[in-house]
């Protein structure tokens, strides 16, 4: 069974995470405590990033928000409704583009319509719009093996957006890209988000990426993960790559990195 969520007039949905914890193997002799009582509120249309050491529970938290992983304690509510099953009105992007080799880029994107019985003409029209926006019209009839890494990730982003979900959950979607391509994808994501006003929860190891994209950044501790700090990113939008060289940006980066130095686990760059 799946659940739908309703967007408000801003185009996004509020998320309430209340004392959520996750313990794997709780009924065994060797339980694994991944997440320790996380509580946060995310506003409709807000862009939030989560940074933290590897294995601190960032991805686990995202999967629980999506309803793909059961929580051990606490509650997660989207648009006021508790998440008890996988939600459908969500776009999920992972580090691996997960495109099917035997389908063209366009047919990978329209797979949503085929599987979920969505209006085919509407989905195809929206897909063409997004391919044009991301300057990929010439790639629609190509197969993933014929596309560069950056192009494959853009196709994956289109697939995430094509059914116009009010919520985007993104787990290191650009982590495998080279630095220059990743910066271009950050600019594209910022532009799309500013135009659509969707709620975004981004999991990333990159402190500059988190600062560049976010309204707020949540810093997590080592496992069992909990929220150690929340930073408001008050930089004006739209943000340019040049802004990353500014003193305010550098100060925020230093502040975020200080948490990882204190923990002795600096794997965020």
What does this structure look like?
The chain is of the alpha/beta class. It has 2 domains: 7-89 and 165-269, Rossmann fold (3-Layer(aba) Sandwich), CATH 3.40.50; 99-164, no CATH class. The chain is 33% helix and 22% strand. Strands 6-7-8-3-9-10 form a 6-stranded mixed beta sheet, with helices on both faces. Strands 2-1-4-5 form a 4-stranded antiparallel beta sheet, covered by helices on one side. It is globular. The termini are far apart.
Q: Can you lay out the helices and strands and say which pair or pack?
A:
Blueprint: E1 15-24, E2 32-42, E3 47-51, H1 58-65, E4 73-78, E5 81-82, E6 90-93, H2 105-109, H3 111-116, H4 120-133, H5 149-161, E7 167-171, H6 179-196, E8 199-203, H7 207-213, E9 216-220, E10 227-232, H8 247-263
Parallel strand pairs: 3-8, 3-9, 6-7, 7-8
Antiparallel strand pairs: 1-2, 1-4, 4-5, 9-10
Helix pairs in contact: 7-8
């Amino acid at each position: 069974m799946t659940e739908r969520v309703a967007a408000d007039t801003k185009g996004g949905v509020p998320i309430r995470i209340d004392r959520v914890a996750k313990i794997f193997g709780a009924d065994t002799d060797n339980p694994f405590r991944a997440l320790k009582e996380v509580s946060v509120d995310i506003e409709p249309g807000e862009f939030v990033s989560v940074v933290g050491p590897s294995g601190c529970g960032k991805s686990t938290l995202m999967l629980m928000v999506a309803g793909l992983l059961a929580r051990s304690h606490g509650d997660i509510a989207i648009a006021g409704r508790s998440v008890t099953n996988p939600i459908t009105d969500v776009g999920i992007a992972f580090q691996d583009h997960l495109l099917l080799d035997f389908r063209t880029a366009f047919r990978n994107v329209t797979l949503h319509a085929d599987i979920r019985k969505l209006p085919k003409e509407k989905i195809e029209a929206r897909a063409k719009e997004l391919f044009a926006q991301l300057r990929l019209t010439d790639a629609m009839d190509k197969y993933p093996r014929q596309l560069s890494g950056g192009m494959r990730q853009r196709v994956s982003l289109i697939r995430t957006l094509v059914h116009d979900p009010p919520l985007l959950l993104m787990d290191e979607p650009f982590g495998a890209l080279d630095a220059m391509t990743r910066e271009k994808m950050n600019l594209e994501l910022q532009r799309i988000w500013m135009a659509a006003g969707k709620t975004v929860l981004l999991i990333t190891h990159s402190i500059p990426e988190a600062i560049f994209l976010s309204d707020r950044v949540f810093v997590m501790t080592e496992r069992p993960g909990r929220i150690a700090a929340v930073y408001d990113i008050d930089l004006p939008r739209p943000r340019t790559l040049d802004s990353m060289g500014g003193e305010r940006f550098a100060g925020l980066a230093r502040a975020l990195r200080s948490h990882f130095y204190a923990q002795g686990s600096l794997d965020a760059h």
